[in-house]
Amino acid sequence: MIRVVLADDQAVVRMGFRVLLEEHGDIEVVGEASGGLEAIDVVRRQRPDVVLMDLRMPGGDGIAATREITSWHGVVPGGRETAVLVVTTFDLDEDVFGALEAGADGFVLKDCEPEELVDAVRRLAAGDGLVDASVTRRVITEFARRRPRRPGSPNTTDLLTPRELDIVRLLARGMSNVEISRELFVETSTVKSHLTRAMTKIGARDRVQTVVWAHRNGLAEDD
After folding, report:
1. Which of 125, 135, 153, 191 is most exposed, with the fewest beta carbons within 10 Å of its own?
2. In what order do the strands lie in the sheet with 2-7?
3. Helix (H, G, I), strand (E, B) or coil at 128
4. CA 31, CA 40: separation in Å to the nearest integer?
């Protein structure tokens, strides 16, 4: 069962998301919050797989809540890591980019199709990330364009091995680990190992940040 927390200051929005998600037998809403500080508290207690996070809420904004929640990853002993799915009207403003910097794992539009929302929750819960979702890719592309790699940064070929570069390029094209393994004719475990090493070398905390790095360094297909 996929455990979800809803963080939005509008009760009607939370109710709508709950209905959409819980009509699927594999998703359960285990908590709700109307503000950022409350969201942190609920997530800390429930340890859901995914939290749907609104960015502009009273009682603590969604960016600060996202930063706090993602800071627990790999730190809380035996704790469940919670993926943050930002729900946005997609104005591409600084709040959206701030959420990306804070560690958000993906983005969906508030008026997205129900199937898109359910698919996003399932992908994040499975650890696949949302780097191939059109909204998340648009956010990443624009973010990388506005904040390019700083002059004097280490050259990509000096940081990663040829195989690691191949995997990061395919990741930036939106491929999952399984799809990358098929493309390169290697085991999925091999992809995970190379990707983990690559992320450590470039200082990326997750798949989304790795794709941002790829865009900034000219490794993305559409750059």
Report:
1. 153
2. 27-33, 2-7, 50-54, 83-88, 106-109
3. coil
4. 11
Task: Report the 10 Å Cβ neighbour count for 139.
Answer: 24
Which amino acid appears at position 162 of this protein? P
Report phi then psi at 112, rounded to 5. Answer: -70, 165
Question: What tokens were used for 136?
Answer: 């998340």
CA-CA distance, 65 to 193, in Å (whole number)?
30
- Tell me the CA distances in angstroms from 168 to 163, 201, 217, one per residue in order: 9, 12, 11
The per-residue pLDDT for range 82-139, each reduced to its tens digit, is 999 999 876 667 888 999 989 999 999 988 899 999 999 999 998 888 888 888 988 9
Average confidence (pLDDT) over 37-65: 93
DSSP secondary structure letter of residue 1: -
Name the residue with higher pLDDT: 178 or 129.
Answer: 178
SS3 176: coil
Do residues 39 and 60 make contact, with C-beta atoms less than 8 angstroms apart? yes
Hey, what amino acid is at 141? T
pLDDT for 223: 44
Length of the chain: 223
